[in-house]
Amino acid sequence: MKAKTKKKYKSYEQQKARWGLLYVLPWLIGFISFFVSPLINS
User: Fold this and answer.
1) Helix, strand or coil for residue 36?
2) SS3 for 32?
3) What percent of the chain is helix, strand and coil (3-state, nearest 5)?
């Protein structure tokens, strides 16, 4: 029983990590395109 609970908990943590990444992804794309790219090109 504990193994199933632990496995379920791990997949829940992975799901939370994916949603967090999906939430931050637009900010990362904007940061790279508007800050890092001009910095490299100059």
Assistant:
1) helix
2) helix
3) 95, 0, 5
Both tokens of 16, joined, read 């939370």
In this model, does residue 1 exceed pLDDT 80?
Answer: no
Kindly tell me the sign of the dihedral angle through the C-alpha atoms of 15, 18, 20, 26: negative
State the pLDDT confidence band at 23, using cuts at 50, 70 and 90.
very high
Alpha-carbon distance 28 to 32, whole Å? Answer: 6
Please give the average per-residue pLDDT across 10-21, as a whole number. 90
| DSSP for residue 42 | -
